[in-house]
From TrEMBL:
GO terms for molecular function: DNA-binding transcription factor activity, RNA polymerase II-specific; RNA polymerase II transcription regulatory region sequence-specific DNA binding; transferase activity; zinc ion binding. Residues 642-710 form the R3H domain. This is Transcriptional repressor NF-X1. It comes from Origma solitaria. It comes from the Eukaryota. GO terms for cellular component: nucleus. Pfam families: R3H, zf-NF-X1. GO terms for biological process: negative regulation of transcription by RNA polymerase II. Residues 14-66 form the RING-type domain. The keyword rRNA-binding does not apply. It is found in: Nucleus.
Length: 768
């Protein structure tokens, strides 16, 4: 009725094209599910690869019920199939012929055809009345033909069961009667065992001696009345006694007839218990331990009964063939059992099929070495582990699935179920809504991580040492260093912290180790001992260096130091002090400076200037302005590494020219880390070029930074390398050694040894 109404009102849709089925459109109806389709749509569907059945040979599948059909519909017929291309009649059902349906109903036992007009859908049940009997056939009733229910009466079935002896005791039922459930007792052929079986089963059969074999030794008395049957429980009568005189014709080994032995004087046997005469030869019966190629025989003399075990030995190998042992054969079955049970204690070292574990089986004979362990590695989701047997390669993807929605933190982005295990939360472009530690604007998006990214809002913060208020500092930075010295007073109360701006206390578990700056009592030089706030300065010799033409160590101690200290006021007023009276001759000799080549040259120039009446400040020969003055030590170092000096001078000249031609007033250049000698060369050359030079960092990464200042830095006319080249070309003779005159008061006269030059300390290298 629903199909008729939808087709008439044109509300029924084709499942292929999803369009409404018109009244005049050719259609096709499935005979299994009764869905209606456009004829052209079903033709296209039947030819498409998607409609083919799974086995590939059963035709095409209905889009609705998946029922396979072999033939593709070609013509437009009515629902009952009698009329092709039925015409539409306003008073009839669309796509029907208007005649009786006449199709066979679905009920298999209904002989009546459908008696309503041609219609879509299944035919209704048959309305005719028929007489049907119950299942047991004892009663009959009048029911509708289309009624599918079976008729049951309340009588006992009474049909004969499968055993043919008993009848069915069930109430009227459908189908065959159940097998007989009564039990019958049976006895075995030898009569020693009993069992119960169902009545009417095949096991109930009996041949008169019994019904089954118990597989034990028969044990019945033979016809001789003296021996028992040694066969397994059997259905036929027992055989004759094998020891009867009329049955035995040969000796026990079977090589000699008894007639010959009787001729030789053996006693004739009367009954079965009489012994069988022996021929005296070797038995020679084949033993069970032999094979087809090598047959082992009994080596005993002709005897009755079973043969003795074999005396031969054989090698028995373990299962894997690694070990062997020698064993008496003693019978084929015993040898076979020993060969099967013999195993060595060697463990297999081969890799299993997984490639991760070793076999470790004792006396292994396996060829594949399959791994029986569970894989247990983490799957791609990171939450579950692989539960398959241990295998090679990557594990499969996690099969677990969640049927809950997966959302971002704010809930704007959603992944709908099913959600595979390990799926990350969806990305969200909304601003993060989590609570933050600061009140600054939030610029990052919603995220699934528990911790938010650090706040990058620029703020003003004090440095760790409270030296200055720094600007443009990201909010998340807490420990800020200004780069200046700490300069906080230490616990000693004398020194200040020299560390770069830092966090926390200056000295936590350490004591101040800076040199003491308290002036000495006798020479006013600082103490220089490690800081000792609670103890007086130690009485040690002063190691401070003073400038008096040359740097010497202060060796004044004792009473002389006290006397010199009292004359300090005269020195400050400009007067001179005679120290020869205050110190001994030995101390005077130790404290007197030794003249060198430079001193003698200065004295000679001074005498020459006095003779020519030349002022010291004048430069008549343009000596000072003609070129720079390079020290002998610098020249000596330059000769050792002339390439390094030439590179340094080239970089300095380029730096000076760049700052003089450019807009900037200063320009700097940083040299890579180098040793102390190279740094000293750079410092001395920087003085010649008028360039500032400073050393930074600690060894071994200490380096030099030079800075050229506009208007102050110059490029000398003669470089150090050109000066050295001129000196090499002129090759002057080496100067004669100078000798000093000794003090007449000392009482010594004559020549003294040449002077030794004191070591030069790089004072520029301690700048920070």
């Amino acid at each position: 009725g629903s199909l008729i109404e939808q087709l008439t009102t044109e509300k029924y849709e084709c499942m292929v094209c999803c369009e409404v089925v018109r009244i005049v459109a050719p259609v096709w109806s499935c005979q299994n599910c009764y869905h209606v389709f456009h004829l052209n749509c079903i033709k296209k569907w039947a030819r498409s690869p998607a409609s083919q059945a799974e086995d590939g040979n059963s035709g095409w599948r209905c889009p609705a019920c998946q029922n396979a059909s072999v033939q593709v519909p070609k013509t437009y017929t009515c629902f009952c199939g009698k009329v092709d291309n039925p015409e539409w009649n306003r008073n009839e059902i669309p796509h029907s012929c208007g005649e009786l349906c006449g199709k066979k109903r679905q009920c298999l036992d209904c002989p009546h055809l459908c008696n309503i007009l041609c219609h879509p859908g299944p035919c209704p049940s048959c309305p005719a009345f028929v007489t049907k009997t119950c299942e047991c056939g004892q009663t009959s009733h009048s029911v509708r033909c289309g009624q599918s229910t079976k008729i049951h009466c309340s009588n006992v079935c009474g049909n004969t069961l499968n055993c043919g002896k008993h009848s069915c005791t069930q109430v009227c039922h459908a189908g065959k009667c159940s097998p007989c459930q009564l039990t019958v007792q049976q006895v075995c052929y030898c009569g020693s065992n009993f069992k119960e079986v169902l009545c009417g089963s095949k096991e109930e059969f009996s041949d008169g001696f019994g019904s089954f074999s118990c597989q034990n030794i028969c044990g019945k008395k033979l016809n001789c009345g003296r021996h028992n049957c040694k066969q397994v429980c059997h259905p036929q009568p027992c055989q004759l006694c094998p020891r009867l005189p009329q049955v035995v014709y040969r000796c026990p080994c079977g090589q000699t007839p008894l007639s010959k032995l009787l001729e030789l004087g053996c006693v004739e046997r009367k009954i079965c218990t009489d012994p069988i005469p022996s021929c005296g030869k070797t038995c020679g019966k084949p033993l069970s331990c032999g094979s087809y190629e090598f047959i082992h025989t009994c080596e005993s003399l002709c005897h009755e009964g079973d043969c003795r075990p074999c005396s031969h030995t054989s090698n028995i190998y373990c299962r894997c063939g690694f070990k062997k042992k020698v064993r008496l054969l003693g019978g084929f079955f015993l040898f076979l059992i020993a060969a099967i049970t013999f195993m060595c204690d060697k463990r297999c070292n081969k890799k299993r099929s997984c490639g991760r574990h070793k076999c470790n089986e004792v006396c292994c004979v396996d060829t594949e070495h399959k791994c029986s362990l569970v894989c247990g590695r983490k799957l791609n989701c990171g939450l579950h582990r692989c539960e398959e047997p241990c295998h090679r390669g990557s594990c499969q993807t996690c099969w677990q699935t969640s049927f809950d929605e997966l959302t971002c933190y704010c809930g704007e982005s959603v992944i709908y179920p099913p959600v595979p295990c390990g799926t990350q939360p969806p990305e969200c472009k909304k601003t993060c809504t989590r609570p933050h530690d600061c009140d600054h604007p939030v610029y990052h998006s919603c995220h699934s991580e528990e911790k938010c990214p650090p706040c990058t809002y620029l703020t003003q913060k004090w440095c760790m040492g409270k030296h200055e208020l720094r600007s443009n500092i990201p909010c998340h930075l807490t420990d800020i260093s200004c780069g200046l010295r700490c300069n906080q007073m230490l616990k000693c109360g004398m020194h200040k912290c020299k560390r770069i701006c830092h966090k926390g206390e200056c000295l936590i578990d350490e004591e101040c180790k800076q040199p003491c700056i308290i002036p000495r009592l006798y020479c006013n030089h600082p103490c220089m001992a490690p800081c000792h706030p609670s103890s007086p300065c130690p009485m040690t010799s002063c190691c401070a260096k003073v400038r008096y033409a040359k740097k010497i160590h202060c060796k004044v101690t004792g009473i002389a130091a006290i006397s010199i200290a009292t004359k300090l006021t005269d020195l400050q007023l400009g007067d001179s002090v005679e120290i020869s009276r205050l110190i001994t001759k030995k101390e005077m000799k130790q404290a007197r400076l030794q003249c060198d080549e430079e001193c003698l040259a200065l004295q000679r120039n001074r005498r020459l200037a006095e003779a020519l009446e030349i002022d010291d400040n004048s430069d008549p020969f343009n000596i000072r302005s003609s070129g720079p003055k390079y020290s002998d030590l610098l020249k000596e170092d330059a000769r050792k590494d002339i390439k390094f000096v030439s590179d340094i001078e080239r970089e300095m000249r380029m730096l000076v020219e760049a700052v003089n031609k450019g807009k900037h007033t200063k320009k700097s250049h940083c040299y890579p880390p180098m040793n102390r000698d190279h740094r000293r060369i750079i410092h001395e050359l920087a003085q010649v070029y008028g360039i500032e030079s400073v050393s930074y960092d600690n060894e071994p990464k200490r380096n030099v930074v030079i800075t050229a200042v506009k208007g102050k830095s110059i490029c000398p006319s003669n470089t150090l390398t050109s000066v050295l080249d001129k000196e090499m070309q002129s090759r002057p003779a080496p100067p004669l050694p100078h000798y000093k005159q000794t003090d007449k008061s000392s009482g010594n006269s004559g020549l003294s040894k040449p002077l030794k030059e004191e070591p030069v300390i790089d004072y520029f290298d301690v700048q920070d």
